[in-house]
Amino acid sequence: MADSPQPINLFEFEDAAREVLPKAEYDYIAGGATDEISVDRNRRAYASWAFRPRVLRDVSKLDLSTTVLGSKVALPVLIAPCGGHKRAHPDGELATYRAAASCGTAMAVSANANTSFEDLAKAADGMLWVQLYPFRDKAMTQDWLDRAQANGYKAIIVTLDSQWPPKRERNIRNRYQRTRGANYPVGGEHPDAPRPAGSGAGSDPAATWKDLEWIKAATRLPVVAKGIMTGEDVELCAQVGADGVIVSNHGGRHLDNTLATVEVLSEAVAAAKGKMEVYLDGGIRRGADVVKAIALGAKAVFIGRPLFWGLAVGGEQGVVRVLNLLREEIEITMAKCGRPTIASIDASAIVRVPPL
Amino acid sequence: MADSPQPINLFEFEDAAREVLPKAEYDYIAGGATDEISVDRNRRAYASWAFRPRVLRDVSKLDLSTTVLGSKVALPVLIAPCGGHKRAHPDGELATYRAAASCGTAMAVSANANTSFEDLAKAADGMLWVQLYPFRDKAMTQDWLDRAQANGYKAIIVTLDSQWPPKRERNIRNRYQRTRGANYPVGGEHPDAPRPAGSGAGSDPAATWKDLEWIKAATRLPVVAKGIMTGEDVELCAQVGADGVIVSNHGGRHLDNTLATVEVLSEAVAAAKGKMEVYLDGGIRRGADVVKAIALGAKAVFIGRPLFWGLAVGGEQGVVRVLNLLREEIEITMAKCGRPTIASIDASAIVRVPPL
Amino acid sequence: MADSPQPINLFEFEDAAREVLPKAEYDYIAGGATDEISVDRNRRAYASWAFRPRVLRDVSKLDLSTTVLGSKVALPVLIAPCGGHKRAHPDGELATYRAAASCGTAMAVSANANTSFEDLAKAADGMLWVQLYPFRDKAMTQDWLDRAQANGYKAIIVTLDSQWPPKRERNIRNRYQRTRGANYPVGGEHPDAPRPAGSGAGSDPAATWKDLEWIKAATRLPVVAKGIMTGEDVELCAQVGADGVIVSNHGGRHLDNTLATVEVLSEAVAAAKGKMEVYLDGGIRRGADVVKAIALGAKAVFIGRPLFWGLAVGGEQGVVRVLNLLREEIEITMAKCGRPTIASIDASAIVRVPPL
Amino acid sequence: MADSPQPINLFEFEDAAREVLPKAEYDYIAGGATDEISVDRNRRAYASWAFRPRVLRDVSKLDLSTTVLGSKVALPVLIAPCGGHKRAHPDGELATYRAAASCGTAMAVSANANTSFEDLAKAADGMLWVQLYPFRDKAMTQDWLDRAQANGYKAIIVTLDSQWPPKRERNIRNRYQRTRGANYPVGGEHPDAPRPAGSGAGSDPAATWKDLEWIKAATRLPVVAKGIMTGEDVELCAQVGADGVIVSNHGGRHLDNTLATVEVLSEAVAAAKGKMEVYLDGGIRRGADVVKAIALGAKAVFIGRPLFWGLAVGGEQGVVRVLNLLREEIEITMAKCGRPTIASIDASAIVRVPPL
After folding, report:
1. CA-based nearest distance D42→chain C, Å
2. How close, in Å, is residue B46 to chain C by CA atoms?
3. From CA B186, how far away is CA B336, in angstroms rounded?
4. If we measure between CA atoms, which residue out of D247, D292, D239 comes closest to residue D268?
5. CB-based contacts of B173: which residues, under 8 Å, 6+ apart?
């Protein structure tokens, strides 16, 4: 990063990361299920909305801060729960967390993190959430919930779209082997590689809404359901008392041939009826994407792949730069749309783009 | 197949088959009528529907079995009637049938098969259907119907879209010569190369609905009409007592410039009013395509070109692998959509994709 | 044409013609106005309609004949009026006419033909129409109308879209110089290169509907207006007593940025209210295009560029082959759609194609 | 320009300019904000409308003249306010103004012009408008308004979309440094590079509609608001007494991900309710684009980038040729659409193009 010019946007970050990462790791990060149609659509669908610029509205004082589950963040971009940050940089999750904290935003720690919940909590003075699956192993689940609460984590994300192993063809071709997360008991399975006949720690294919209810009852922390792509499931989340949902197709990494997350957002927001916060991940590469998601009703968005690119290119400082690039682009967009605060970004800021 | 890595999807199967097949045979299999617009659209149209993933619905026990005309198959993917399997592998139809039987599904035997109906019936303990045309030669037709019944075949497919020879430009350029099917009487014509002024065994351009009624009356086996692309013709099939229809444009090999079969499916299903089973062929390459077709009302689908790729790459085992790849992809799709049985796959599993 | 294989479709004819024609002549034939958007759209718009194949309708006896202005033609494809056939072959219009006559169809002779109306009439025993512009020079106009009638021509086409010279950039780059038509008086202007301040033989930019009325009154032959692209102008044609209209944008050679002619056809047919025959030219390359135009209400279609490709590749026999290729493709399409006669090709034979 | 053939359209002008301009200058002119989606869409969106050609309407006398704010121009194409014409040619704004004057149209002088308002006014006998921003510095604003009026300028354009610096990635990569405009007081800031915490001459991010009211009150010249992209802002312009609006997204150079200006035009025209003139800039490259904009309700259009190409290729004569090419193409379009005057170009001249 010292000699070559710094990436000036997230696409250049991806290019730079591709240069330094082993191909199999780059592919693991970049890849998606089967034909990667959903990976591609997640990104391209943002182009379906255009901004409606507004003028003469005093944008001299922009405020990008908002709240997530009642806690303030400096910008509406959070770090998604992604396994194994050490694949991109030896500092792993520690670097990411320090970057997030220094930028005033929250990081969600993956069930498959390379770092223990406890070590991570000590690394900075920011905001942490923890992510888990509806595990078969309820004892381990309770242990994680307790450890999260004891270490000051602010929320629980339950990832619901990993009930069956996906077909990621890049990984198959690369014979890619993942390492186990640091927080599992020794001898447990890979949580995101469940098998129907398996047992133990994996995401349970037999899980039902009762399992999410169990988690909600087992912790005092707010619970956010991740991997929701329909209004029906948003309503079911509300019925079991979830505090939020993340509209997500797992970055196109589990089921291919879905709509883009941003295309599902309005349906999800409508179904939430204001009772739960609705977040989004998938394809965020520009500040413009963030503003569009907020205009469509998202409380905040999460980034996944870009944090790996930041790590690969520059460790903690790389992630800081990724977040700052998004912040600067959000500022421009807010100013040009005449929206000085996050709360002022509503549906009138955008318009559906007609096909050309 | 021994040295190079196994194909991991049907596209790789096609690539591998292209390597081993003579160009003229590859082209015969791949090609379609004139500009091959329908070949292309059959495939691409699946992208017009997206899945609506569902969570927490207990997908630990997936059941892919269904019934076709009352008989159970282990998965909703059948082998379409395609002429001359020996063009892809010396074992020809025997290999295909054994593969189908070992995977628990049915094979439809083409009028132009390289193997006699009798020899094929002895090769495995699976389910066979036979395909014919509305031949001019009623005596031969009756003979085939009787032989099929005597040899335990379960259904008759009557292909209706071959009343006039198509223009397949790859074949014209390659000066491609087809061999005659093994089941025709010596000296008969090519059944799928009829001429208006011709006579004998060919698909009769003068055929009308009375000819289909004649076939229905001439056998106790169920009769399925293949090559149907409109609701009007579905209704006429019902009126003459057909037991099922296959929505098919012959893989884009007869009339170019049609809609994709999957685009016609809803119209056909509505017209069938639940009185006949509706199947589909055309462009199936992924398990996702199968699930979409079922969500739109198909009872099952047929594959054509992929069986030749399987044969070319690995004979019987190649076809087994083709079927298993589809089965695994169907499983993932069903699990991720929260649909543990074929019957649970309904229209709410999909949504029309807006153009980007 | 002797050594290399014969073109098997009109695209191959174009490729073969490009090989033998001087670049400037090829470009003159191929090119259109400014960005050639209309040239491209004329062709591509046919893909907006798909066929609805029908089965079991007795297509053993296909009849492609129809009538134009009351005279029978063997197929619904006529030769459009195109200037200077000698640019493609030394036999020029004589070869084209002989080909049209031997195929049983009509040829429209351009105002800019390289052959005199009289010489052409003697060359074969077919059907000729003549094309002219709303000339400033009424004496010459009357002379042409009289010569056409005296020589057995069957109809007059008046081209109305050439009231102002177009911008054809290929010709500008090639410094292309056209030769004068053989039928103009010595010293007259180029009829299709009018200037507002010019005088004499050119298409008169000051022409109004009174000029078309004048032509109608000046001949007993039926009058067909060419270059019509709106329902309003169809109605005005009817008001002045025209016998037919040709929906045409001059092959995209005059005004760019129009709809395709096939997209305007329904509007034109509706406006004609059955009182005039409606023809179409523009982008016809396949028999399928002809059948689509007829299904949308065209009485017949005209081909322009393909006749030059036929001439360039094989003179009279090349044009015969172009027409025969279209005939064979029309036959296939009619048979597969279950439409044994031209009259049976109605709107139910096609369906609008949804965007993919 | 002497040796190589003259560009025959504006695309060739761009190509020729790219040859002679330093890359950083070419990029500065060509580039836009972030992904340049709006740059591209501005251009491509014209293809969403097609012409409806009309015949026999007497187009022998075409009149391209119209009025802007009550003053006559010979054609409905004006020179947009663009900074620093000397980057393309040493004669800079003097050359552009002489070209505009000789073609009978108006030039808007940028706040960042390389030439003083006074020097420019003396260079020709044409029509000048001046452009400024809602500056923080009201004294300088008053000075500019007074100088414009004293030097015979006819209107004031206030650019409203530059309240925040854009992200132009080509400039970042090229480390592009702009020079200051000739009309700013020594020591003032760059007007189009404002910073929230800055002070002085820059476009004030704190500006509100009161600032536009102030400008309107501070001059007797008509005031035109530039950078309007919504009906709401058109209405607000009317409320503060603006005399016109320019629908503009600054050539895609400020906020990316907007609709094309031509797509917003109808909304703007409707909101203006005939009380203000509505102009447009963005993507004009063909006379056809001009006619489409007028058919959608624009009073006239502005060109920006093409004037730099004209300057780069041939100085004053290059700009003359750019304007003449547009004029010739407008003439062809008007003639072929049967619209002999600007006033006769209404909505019936065009039709929305269906997607192919």
Report:
1. 16
2. 9
3. 53
4. D247
5. C5, C8
pLDDT category at C3 given cuts 50, 70, 90 is: low
Q: Tell me whether C212 touches chain D (CB under 8 Å).
A: yes
Whether A277 is covered by a domain: the verdict is: yes
- Residue B186 belongs to a domain: no
For residue C94, the one-letter residue type is L
CB B34 within 8 A of CB B256: yes
Tokens 């008046």 appear where? C158
Identify which of D35, D164, D212 has the shortest CB distance to residue A59: D164
| Helix and strand totals (H; E) in chain B | 12, 12
Q: CA of B13, closest CA in chain A: separation in Å?
A: 14
Q: What is the dihedral of CA A31, A32, A37, A40, to 10 degrees?
A: -50
Across A267-283, b (16+ Cβ under 10 Å) vs e yields: bbbebbeeebbbbbbbb
Residue B202: helix, strand or coil by DSSP? coil
Q: Is the pLDDT of residue B199 over 50?
A: no
Query: How much is the average pLDDT of B10-29?
Result: 98
Q: Which residue, chain included where needed, has tokens 């592998």?
A: B89
Helices (H), chain B: 10-20, 23-30, 37-44, 92-103, 117-123, 138-150, 169-174, 209-217, 231-239, 261-272, 287-295, 305-336
- Buried (b) or exposed (e) across A227-241, using 16+ Cβ within 10 A? bbbbbbbbebbbebe
pLDDT tens digit string along D130-143?
999 999 999 999 99
Q: Output DSSP code: residue D306.
A: H
The domain that contains D29 carries what CATH number? Answer: 3.20.20.70
Q: Cβ distance D154 to D221 under 8 Å?
A: yes
Q: Model's pTM, two decimal places?
A: 0.96
Average pLDDT, rounded, for chain B = 95
d(CA D216, CA D238): 11
Please list every residue in chain D whose beta carbon sits closer than 8 Å to the beta carbon of residue A52.
229-230, 258
Q: b or e along B99-131 (b: 16 or more beta carbons within 10 Å of the residue's beta carbon)?
A: bbbbbbbbbbbbbbbbbbbeebbebbebbbbbb
Tell me which residue of B112, B130, B111 sits closest to B121, measured CA to CA. B130
CA A46-A292-A295 angle, to 5 degrees, is 145
Helix A287-295 / helix A305-336 crossing angle, nearest 10 deg:
70
ipTM above 0.90, yes or no: yes
Taking the Cβ of residue B280 and every Cβ of chain C, the question of whether any pair is shorter than 8 Å is answered with no
- C to D CB pairs, distance under 8 Å: 102
Pick the residue from chain A with its C-alpha nearest to D165.
A332
For helices D23-30 and D305-336, angle between their N-to-C axes, nearest 10 degrees? 50
Interchain pair B48, C354: CB under 8 A: yes
Angle separating helix axes D287-295 and D261-272, nearest 10 degrees: 30
Q: Does B331 touch chain A (CB under 8 A)?
A: yes
C209: which chain D residues are within 8 Å (Cβ-Cβ)? Answer: 56
Of B112, B106, B75, the closest CA to residue B92 belongs to B112
Neighbours of chain B (3+ CB pairs under 8 A): A, C
Q: What are the residue numbers of the active site of B?
A: 250
d(CA A315, CA A321): 10
Residues B84 and B97: their CA atoms lie apart, in Å, by 13
Assess if residue A50 is contained within a domain: yes
The number of distinct structural domains making up chain C is: 1
Q: Domain of residue A69: give its range.
A: 10-108+208-345
Q: pLDDT-based confidence at A202, cuts 50/70/90?
A: confident
Window 28-67 of B: residues touching C by CB (8 A cutoff) are: 33-35, 37, 41, 44-45, 47-48
Radius of gyration of the CA atoms of chain A, in A: 19
Shortest CA gap C90–chain D (Å) = 33
* CB within 8 Å: A57 and D255: no
Question: Has residue D257 been placed in a domain?
Answer: no
